[in-house]
Write a structure and sequence with these properties.
Elements: H1 2-7, E1 10-12, E2 21-26, H2 36-45, H3 53-65, E3 70-75, E4 81-89, E5 95-97, H4 114-144
Antiparallel strand pairs: 1-2, 2-4, 3-4, 4-5
C-alpha cells in the first residue's frame, strides 16, 4: 500500500510556483497509448464540446460519490492532467474546492496506521478508476464519431441609426 501511494503520479494543484501537488493522472492524448489514427482523430475532436460529455459526467459522478469532499479537476497548460482535489459543500449549498492545497505531498506513509492507509488507497484507486473511465468515454466517442465543419450564422443585436 505504501509503495502504491508513494509511487503514484503527482501534479501541481495550481501552478508550479505554489509548490503543492496531489495525486494525478496524465490524460494527454498522445500519452494514452492509442494508435496513430485514433490519436489524430482525438486531437481533432478536442475542439468539439460534446465529445467531452461522457468524460465530464464521469468526473461529476466521482465528486458526487464523495459528497464533494474529494473532486477531480483538470490542470496543466493544456488541461492534460486530472488532479485529485479536496473540497466540500458550504453552508449555502455551493460546492467549493481548494485547488492550491496539497494532498499527502510530504507524507510519511510508514507512520500511518493500516486504517488510514486503506482509506487513502480506496480513495486513490477510485480516483484512478474514474480517470480511466473518463478517458474511455472520450476515446469511445472519438471512435464512433467524426468531425465535420459546419458554418453557422449567429444572430446578434446591433444598433443602427434611423431618421426621425
Amino acid at each position: 500500500m505504501i509503495a502504491y501511494l508513494a509511487g503514484h503520479g503527482r501534479y501541481n494543484t495550481m501552478n508550479s510556483w505554489n509548490c503543492s501537488t496531489s495525486y494525478a493522472q496524465c490524460v494527454k492524448v498522445d500519452q494514452l497509448g492509442l494508435d496513430r489514427e485514433t490519436v489524430m482523430a482525438a486531437l481533432e475532436m478536442l475542439e468539439v464540446s460534446e465529445a467531452f460529455d461522457g468524460f465530464r459526467r464521469t468526473l461529476r459522478r466521482f465528486d458526487q460519490r464523495h459528497e464533494y469532499r474529494w473532486q477531480i479537476g483538470q490542470n496543466g497548460r493544456s488541461s492534460g492532467y486530472l488532479v485529485l482535489y479536496q473540497g466540500g459543500v458550504g453552508t449555502d449549498g455551493r460546492v467549493f474546492s481548494w485547488p492550491g492545497k496539497s494532498l499527502d505531498m510530504r507524507a510519511d506513509y510508514a507512520e500511518w496506521d493500516t486504517g488510514e492507509l486503506r482509506s487513502r488507497i480506496d480513495l486513490v484507486w477510485d480516483f484512478d478508476r474514474t480517470c480511466e473511465k473518463a478517458v474511455s468515454a472520450f476515446v469511445d466517442f472519438v471512435r464512433t464519431h467524426t468531425v465535420i465543419e459546419e458554418e453557422i450564422l449567429v444572430p446578434r443585436k446591433v444598433k443602427v441609426a434611423v431618421a426621425v
